[in-house]
Amino acid sequence: MIMIVCGVVIAKQELKILDKDPNKRAQSVMNFTIRDSERYFINAICWLPPSDMAALSAAFSIADVVALVYPQIRKQKIDSSPFVPWTEIKLELYCNEKCLIQKLHGPQISKYKMFFHKPCRDHNDYYTIGQIMTDGELLKGQDLNILAAIQQIGKLSTVTLSDGTLKEKLDILLFDENTSGFHLIIWDVEMISYAQRWNAKEHIIFAVDVRIKYNTYLKYYYAEATKKSIFTMNPVDLNEAEELFIAVQHISLEDLNIDLDPFAQLTAKEVNIQELKQHIRNDQYDQMFLINCILSQFDIDNGLDRYVSKQCKICRGRVVDENNNNLYCPNPSCQLGQSDMNETTIVQTFDLQVDISDHTGTMEKVRLSDDVMKKWMNCTVEEFLKYPDDEKTVLKWKYLLERFKFGIQVKKHPKDEKQTTIRIVRQFVQDF
Fold this sequence. Notes:
The protein is α+β, with helices and mostly antiparallel strands and 432 residues long. It is built from 12 helices and 24 strands. A hairpin with a 7-residue loop joins strand 23 (403-412) and strand 24 (420-428). The longest helix has 11 residues, at 389-399. It starts with a strand and ends with a strand. Keywords: DNA-binding, Meiosis. It holds the Pfam family OB_MEIOB_N.
């Protein structure tokens, strides 16, 4: 008898590569949660080699309907509860190479899709933003539920962790009829991909098991998604959600006057090239600066290695290419490091060094962020690589020797304090 379990994916975590045993092949794990009724949802755990897991992870996302063929059913381990969403069912689906997982299409998925917008907790089991801000000290460190509207989706940023690895981070502002500007931080790439579909004022979020924390630098309480978190978008059969949606339609987002822009929050200092160099000589790192300048070198039509890099999909470290496409990640903490890498484990990004100049001098080898470059080129890296050289030259002269106002980030290299990374992370409307 063939066992098939179908359901809509209500939560999913990014894949994780486990520590490799030199005597065994590398393994990776991925958790997700599916639902097939109003009351019941169940966690699934997959164990596969990293390359197979990367392909599986890319095959479906949160809100998709999937079928699991030949999964094993086993009791959920007690020590796994902090790492997966809470469910009433104390069982889990176990999937390995013998299990087939497929994304479903067609009219048959509608009976599962209807459960995606059903809240996973009771209608009154949540905190308002005002309650969290008032009782933040008591709630700090707790996992709780929040009902709120989307105020603003911030820009995706890349953060360097203490071990030198790079991690993506999404900052979202939530609001309701009484309080605005409450931060929700998401680190997991699967949750980030889902959250980037949300729109301001259009979507109400019932957030389950988000952790309350306090930002000691900027002095505010905020929520952070955990491995237990589930986000129900525009929950149905919840009067409180319907009332909140109606209420926020009468609120002007412009009047809230809160911006996720780090330059606005940190009041970046406006400098010229000479002053910027002096700040660097004085070891003033981890700061934001504003600078009016011209783009004095912008070489995008002379060699692929000048403006494109390959990054490991797991740790976002730069992939090394040796001996005719023998690709590997040199990051010693990345478990894909010495294994063969392919298109499922590699992300291509713009990685261009430019020169900027003003009346006080020139700053060479300033990195132009992938985000700014994509906006200028209005395409992906893969699309850009297909452009003929003459088209690249036309794009080059659209920006070369033009005036700009840039947001500059100065950081020490995470692995070599003697090196400095100077990066253009934002372009502003020029005021000269």
